[in-house]
Amino acid sequence: MFLSPSDLKGVFREYGFSLSDQQAEKFSLYLQEILRWNRVHNLVGDDDPETLVRRHFVDSLTLTLCFKELNVDWRNRTVADVGSGAGFPGVPLKIYLGDVRLTLIESVAKKCSFLEFLKVKLGEDYEVLCDRAERVRRTFHIVVARALGDLEDITPLLERLSERYIFVMKGRRIDEALVRKLGYRVYRVNLTGIDSSILYREVIPPSR
Predict the structure, then answer these.
(1) What is the domain count for the chain?
(2) What does the pLDDT profile of the chain (208 residues) look like in tens digits?
(3) Is residue 43 in a domain?
(4) What per-residue confidence (pLDDT) applies to 195?
(5) Domain CATH code at residue 154
(6) Are 95 and 122 in contact (CB under 8 A)?
(7) Longest CA–CA separation in the chain, Å
(8) Pick from 107, 108, 95, 113: which is nearest to 53 by CA?
(9) Is residue 162 part of a domain?
């Protein structure tokens, strides 16, 4: 099933996200390329276009709802997507928000190749670091991760990379006692058909 830019506008609108013509065109190109590359490289598990759009594109944008709720200033800030895979949530955020300085951190070479190709195809300006996040010796204002691994294992890494905010996208079922123990709070995504939670923490900058 082919989804035109107009179709995509309709799907996003169902969840309260309004796309410009240019954004819809970019998401349409993104969808086409994922489906094309997926036949050979198995970038994502979903191959139904509408399921992919809802489960990956729209779900990625739920971060913007959390940003708004917490009054997070993302404009012209550095954002790192750790374990980006096929670009989620970083690339949808870049298309939708525009004014973020995005770095995608991914260790799998075929996925890095896709992200570099996609950058040119979409005409977007972002950086791809093809390396393990443990080896990255930089920090970013906002660090995001989606389905990266066990919370206890990944939070020390995310905290090392972050200057200010950390957001971890998880499913609806989470261990809230563990979340509190690790110093995170929970933002529940309240959209029909999207069953997820966003764990967040503000890193307090060291006093000078």
Answers:
(1) 1
(2) 678 999 999 999 999 999 999 999 999 999 999 999 988 888 887 778 998 999 999 999 999 999 999 999 999 999 999 999 999 999 999 999 999 999 999 999 999 999 999 999 999 999 999 999 999 999 999 999 997 778 888 999 999 999 999 999 998 788 889 999 999 999 999 888 787 899 999 987 655 4
(3) no
(4) 77
(5) 3.40.50.150
(6) yes
(7) 56
(8) 95
(9) yes
Residue 54 lies in a domain: no
**DSSP codes joined into one string, 94-121:** HHHH---EEEEEE--HHHHHHHHHHHHH
For 147-171, the three-class secondary structure string (H helix, E strand, C coil) is CCCCHHHHHHHHHHHEEEEEEEEEE
Please report whether residue 95 resides in a domain. Answer: yes
Residue with tokens 């996003």: 12
DSSP 8-state code for residue 52: H
Alpha helices in the chain (DSSP H): 5-14, 21-41, 49-52, 59-70, 90-97, 109-122, 151-161, 176-181
**CA separation for the pair 104, 91 (Å, rounded):** 8
Which tokens go with 136?
Answer: 């990255």
pTM of the model: 0.94
Backbone angles phi, psi at 174, to 5 degrees: -135, 160
Q: Edge-to-edge strands of the sheet including 185-188?
A: 127-130, 101-106, 78-82, 140-146, 162-171, 196-202, 185-188
Residue 4, CA distances (Å) to 50, 98, 123, 141 in order? 11, 21, 19, 35
Instruction: Quote the domain boundaries for residue 113.
Output: 59-202
Tokens of 202: 């503000």
Dist CA 105 CA 144 (whole Å) = 10
